[in-house]
Please model this.
Amino acid sequence: MCEATTLMLISAGVSAYGQYQQSQAQANAMEAQAAVDRRNAEIRNQQLEEEAALERIRAHDEEMERRKRLNESLSTMRAMNRGRDSASYLAMANADKEAYKFDVSQIRLGAGIGQSRIASQIAINKTSVSNAGYGASAVRKAGMFSAGSTLLGAGATYQEAKIPSSNEKAIL
Model:
């Protein structure tokens, strides 16, 4: 009987140690994955910030190109000796200026939408990894409780085995 209870206690100790080690390994893996996720989010956010800067540059370049075309158009009309007082020159110049204003508004709107989309994605990335690895401490605690529970169960079984039952007293 003594050998069986000793083996049972050893088995419970090994089992408890295994449960504890497994929970530690699982928590470490969660924390390592969270670190990778955070780093990937940082890299992606840097890429998005670069895209935002490129979007601003692209919008500025488009606006400058449109302004250049407007000035070329106005210069061409002037070179064709259309007087500044001419109604047709003024109408064409005003039409080109209005088209320029509309194009610039569209360019700026598109750039603003792009900036907003990028800012939203950056915020989502930051939020999605802010709690990464949060459950690792819970896994560690659960492993300790599980190991403790196994040891307590073994202790209770050991105590039962140590105390002879009423049938055993009667036989002796």
Residues 54 and 135 are 38 Å apart (CA to CA). Helices lie at 2-79, 87-130, 136-162, 166-171.
